[in-house]
Design a protein that fits this description.
Keywords: DNA-binding, Phosphoprotein. This is Transcriptional regulatory protein LnrK. By secondary structure, this protein is α/β, with parallel strands linked by helices. The chain folds into two domains: 144 residues, Rossmann fold (3-Layer(aba) Sandwich), CATH 3.40.50.2300; 64 residues, Winged helix-like DNA-binding domain superfamily/Winged helix DNA-binding domain (Arc Repressor Mutant, subunit A), CATH 1.10.10. It is built from eleven helices and six strands. Strands 1-3-2-4-5-6 form a six-stranded mixed β-sheet, with helices on both faces.
Protein backbone atom coordinates (compact mmCIF):
# COMPACT_ATOMS: atom_id res chain seq x y z
CA UNK A 1 0.00 0.00 0.00
CA UNK A 2 1.29 3.45 -0.90
CA UNK A 3 -0.57 6.43 0.44
CA UNK A 4 1.04 9.73 -0.49
CA UNK A 5 -0.05 12.91 1.24
CA UNK A 6 1.30 16.41 1.07
CA UNK A 7 2.25 18.70 -1.82
CA UNK A 8 5.13 16.54 -3.04
CA UNK A 9 7.39 19.50 -3.77
CA UNK A 10 9.69 21.69 -1.76
CA UNK A 11 9.50 19.72 1.50
CA UNK A 12 10.96 16.69 3.17
CA UNK A 13 9.86 13.23 2.10
CA UNK A 14 9.28 10.50 4.69
CA UNK A 15 8.33 6.83 4.30
CA UNK A 16 6.33 5.65 7.31
CA UNK A 17 6.23 1.86 7.55
CA UNK A 18 4.04 0.26 10.19
CA UNK A 19 1.31 -2.38 9.98
CA UNK A 20 -0.90 -0.59 12.51
CA UNK A 21 -2.98 2.11 10.73
CA UNK A 22 -3.67 4.07 13.91
CA UNK A 23 0.00 4.36 14.76
CA UNK A 24 0.89 5.28 11.19
CA UNK A 25 -1.66 8.08 11.34
CA UNK A 26 -0.37 9.27 14.72
CA UNK A 27 3.25 9.25 13.54
CA UNK A 28 2.36 11.08 10.34
CA UNK A 29 0.57 13.71 12.41
CA UNK A 30 3.65 14.09 14.61
CA UNK A 31 5.88 14.49 11.54
CA UNK A 32 3.58 17.18 10.16
CA UNK A 33 3.80 19.04 13.46
CA UNK A 34 7.51 19.48 12.71
CA UNK A 35 7.52 19.54 8.88
CA UNK A 36 4.22 21.03 7.77
CA UNK A 37 4.91 20.57 4.06
CA UNK A 38 6.28 17.04 4.35
CA UNK A 39 5.41 14.41 1.78
CA UNK A 40 4.39 11.20 3.56
CA UNK A 41 4.42 7.76 1.97
CA UNK A 42 2.87 4.94 3.98
CA UNK A 43 3.56 1.20 3.87
CA UNK A 44 1.84 -1.55 5.84
CA UNK A 45 4.11 -4.57 5.15
CA UNK A 46 7.46 -5.47 3.62
CA UNK A 47 6.08 -5.99 0.11
CA UNK A 48 4.53 -2.52 -0.03
CA UNK A 49 7.59 -1.05 1.68
CA UNK A 50 9.94 -2.49 -0.94
CA UNK A 51 7.83 -0.85 -3.65
CA UNK A 52 7.80 2.45 -1.78
CA UNK A 53 11.57 2.41 -1.25
CA UNK A 54 12.11 1.74 -4.97
CA UNK A 55 9.59 4.29 -6.21
CA UNK A 56 10.69 6.96 -3.74
CA UNK A 57 14.46 6.45 -3.73
CA UNK A 58 14.84 10.18 -3.03
CA UNK A 59 13.09 9.95 0.36
CA UNK A 60 14.88 11.77 3.17
CA UNK A 61 14.08 9.17 5.83
CA UNK A 62 12.36 5.84 6.37
CA UNK A 63 10.69 5.30 9.74
CA UNK A 64 10.51 1.54 10.09
CA UNK A 65 8.52 -0.50 12.59
CA UNK A 66 10.68 -3.33 13.89
CA UNK A 67 7.86 -5.87 13.59
CA UNK A 68 6.68 -5.47 10.01
CA UNK A 69 4.72 -8.33 8.41
CA UNK A 70 7.01 -10.06 5.94
CA UNK A 71 10.18 -9.61 7.98
CA UNK A 72 11.90 -11.46 10.80
CA UNK A 73 12.91 -8.94 13.47
CA UNK A 74 15.98 -7.02 12.32
CA UNK A 75 15.95 -8.74 8.93
CA UNK A 76 13.77 -6.01 7.41
CA UNK A 77 16.16 -3.26 8.50
CA UNK A 78 19.20 -5.21 7.29
CA UNK A 79 17.67 -6.14 3.94
CA UNK A 80 16.45 -2.61 3.19
CA UNK A 81 19.82 -1.12 4.16
CA UNK A 82 21.46 -3.52 1.72
CA UNK A 83 18.99 -2.79 -1.08
CA UNK A 84 18.84 0.99 -0.54
CA UNK A 85 22.07 2.09 1.18
CA UNK A 86 21.35 5.73 0.36
CA UNK A 87 18.09 5.72 2.38
CA UNK A 88 18.50 6.54 6.10
CA UNK A 89 16.39 4.26 8.29
CA UNK A 90 15.18 5.10 11.79
CA UNK A 91 13.67 2.18 13.66
CA UNK A 92 10.41 2.84 15.49
CA UNK A 93 9.27 0.29 18.05
CA UNK A 94 7.35 -0.31 21.25
CA UNK A 95 10.18 -2.63 22.27
CA UNK A 96 12.26 -0.15 24.25
CA UNK A 97 14.92 -2.44 25.64
CA UNK A 98 18.35 -0.75 25.46
CA UNK A 99 19.96 -3.83 23.93
CA UNK A 100 17.38 -3.79 21.11
CA UNK A 101 18.09 -0.12 20.43
CA UNK A 102 21.84 -0.76 20.36
CA UNK A 103 21.45 -3.69 17.97
CA UNK A 104 19.32 -1.60 15.63
CA UNK A 105 22.12 0.96 15.32
CA UNK A 106 24.72 -1.82 14.93
CA UNK A 107 22.64 -3.14 12.01
CA UNK A 108 22.66 0.20 10.23
CA UNK A 109 19.80 2.27 11.66
CA UNK A 110 20.44 5.99 12.03
CA UNK A 111 18.42 6.00 15.21
CA UNK A 112 15.77 4.35 17.34
CA UNK A 113 12.53 6.11 18.22
CA UNK A 114 10.39 4.59 21.00
CA UNK A 115 6.71 4.49 20.11
CA UNK A 116 5.94 6.13 23.43
CA UNK A 117 7.97 9.26 22.52
CA UNK A 118 6.11 12.59 22.73
CA UNK A 119 5.92 14.97 19.78
CA UNK A 120 8.77 17.11 21.11
CA UNK A 121 11.10 14.10 21.24
CA UNK A 122 10.04 12.98 17.76
CA UNK A 123 10.90 16.44 16.44
CA UNK A 124 14.31 16.32 18.13
CA UNK A 125 15.01 12.86 16.69
CA UNK A 126 13.96 13.81 13.17
CA UNK A 127 16.09 16.94 13.11
CA UNK A 128 19.09 15.00 14.42
CA UNK A 129 19.00 12.18 11.86
CA UNK A 130 18.21 14.54 8.96
CA UNK A 131 21.35 16.45 9.98
CA UNK A 132 23.34 13.23 9.64
CA UNK A 133 23.56 12.29 13.30
CA UNK A 134 22.62 9.03 15.00
CA UNK A 135 19.81 9.58 17.50
CA UNK A 136 18.98 7.46 20.52
CA UNK A 137 17.25 8.28 23.79
CA UNK A 138 19.82 10.04 25.98
CA UNK A 139 19.77 7.32 28.61
CA UNK A 140 20.65 4.69 26.01
CA UNK A 141 23.14 6.49 23.79
CA UNK A 142 26.10 6.16 26.17
CA UNK A 143 25.39 2.46 26.73
CA UNK A 144 25.38 1.75 22.99
CA UNK A 145 28.66 3.63 22.58
CA UNK A 146 30.38 1.26 25.02
CA UNK A 147 28.68 -1.98 23.94
CA UNK A 148 29.39 -2.28 20.24
CA UNK A 149 28.63 -5.75 18.93
CA UNK A 150 30.94 -7.56 16.57
CA UNK A 151 30.31 -8.56 12.94
CA UNK A 152 27.24 -10.68 12.26
CA UNK A 153 27.63 -13.11 9.36
CA UNK A 154 23.88 -13.75 9.08
CA UNK A 155 23.21 -10.01 8.80
CA UNK A 156 25.86 -9.73 6.10
CA UNK A 157 24.09 -12.48 4.14
CA UNK A 158 20.60 -10.99 4.53
CA UNK A 159 21.91 -7.67 3.18
CA UNK A 160 22.89 -9.43 -0.08
CA UNK A 161 19.64 -11.31 -0.69
CA UNK A 162 17.50 -10.53 -3.70
CA UNK A 163 13.91 -9.44 -2.96
CA UNK A 164 12.60 -12.89 -3.91
CA UNK A 165 15.21 -14.69 -1.82
CA UNK A 166 14.30 -12.45 1.11
CA UNK A 167 10.61 -13.35 0.76
CA UNK A 168 11.46 -17.05 0.62
CA UNK A 169 13.73 -16.75 3.66
CA UNK A 170 11.02 -15.00 5.67
CA UNK A 171 8.35 -17.53 4.73
CA UNK A 172 10.75 -20.37 5.54
CA UNK A 173 11.33 -18.88 8.99
CA UNK A 174 7.55 -18.63 9.45
CA UNK A 175 7.26 -22.39 8.90
CA UNK A 176 5.77 -22.47 5.40
CA UNK A 177 6.47 -25.49 3.22
CA UNK A 178 7.67 -25.28 -0.38
CA UNK A 179 4.17 -25.74 -1.79
CA UNK A 180 2.82 -22.92 0.39
CA UNK A 181 5.70 -20.60 -0.50
CA UNK A 182 5.17 -21.33 -4.21
CA UNK A 183 1.47 -20.50 -3.86
CA UNK A 184 2.14 -17.23 -2.00
CA UNK A 185 4.74 -16.10 -4.54
CA UNK A 186 2.83 -17.44 -7.56
CA UNK A 187 5.85 -19.45 -8.74
CA UNK A 188 6.58 -23.16 -9.21
CA UNK A 189 7.95 -25.38 -6.47
CA UNK A 190 11.05 -25.85 -8.62
CA UNK A 191 11.64 -22.10 -8.45
CA UNK A 192 11.25 -22.16 -4.67
CA UNK A 193 13.75 -25.02 -4.43
CA UNK A 194 16.20 -23.02 -6.55
CA UNK A 195 15.84 -20.04 -4.21
CA UNK A 196 16.31 -22.29 -1.18
CA UNK A 197 19.45 -23.80 -2.67
CA UNK A 198 20.90 -20.33 -3.21
CA UNK A 199 19.81 -19.27 0.28
CA UNK A 200 21.40 -22.32 1.93
CA UNK A 201 24.61 -21.67 0.05
CA UNK A 202 24.75 -18.04 1.15
CA UNK A 203 23.98 -18.94 4.76
CA UNK A 204 26.45 -21.81 4.75
CA UNK A 205 23.85 -24.33 5.94
CA UNK A 206 22.65 -27.72 4.70
CA UNK A 207 19.05 -27.96 5.90
CA UNK A 208 15.83 -26.06 6.41
CA UNK A 209 16.22 -26.33 10.19
CA UNK A 210 19.68 -24.78 10.10
CA UNK A 211 18.44 -22.01 7.81
CA UNK A 212 15.51 -21.24 10.10
CA UNK A 213 17.80 -21.09 13.13
CA UNK A 214 20.15 -18.74 11.31
CA UNK A 215 17.41 -16.37 10.15
CA UNK A 216 15.68 -16.50 13.54
CA UNK A 217 18.85 -15.19 15.18
CA UNK A 218 17.76 -11.78 13.87
CA UNK A 219 14.34 -12.00 15.49
CA UNK A 220 13.21 -9.67 18.27
CA UNK A 221 10.67 -10.38 20.98
CA UNK A 222 7.38 -8.74 20.09
CA UNK A 223 6.50 -5.86 22.43
CA UNK A 224 3.26 -5.40 24.26
CA UNK A 225 0.55 -2.97 23.27
CA UNK A 226 1.96 0.24 21.85
CA UNK A 227 1.30 3.76 23.07
CA UNK A 228 0.66 6.31 20.29
CA UNK A 229 2.88 9.41 20.27
CA UNK A 230 1.76 11.89 22.91
CA UNK A 231 0.25 15.11 21.65
Amino acid sequence: MTNVTGPGTGGRKFIVADDHPLFRAALCQSIRATFADAELIEAKDMDSLQRCATEHADADLLLLDLHMPGAQGFSGLIFLSGQHPQLPVMVVSANEKPEVMCRAVDYGACGFLPKSAPVETIAEALHAVLAGDVWLPAEVASQCATEKSGPNEIADVVATLTPQQFRVATMLAEGLQNKQIAYELNVTEATVKAHLTALFRKLGVNSRTQAVLAISSLDVEAPGQFTPPAK
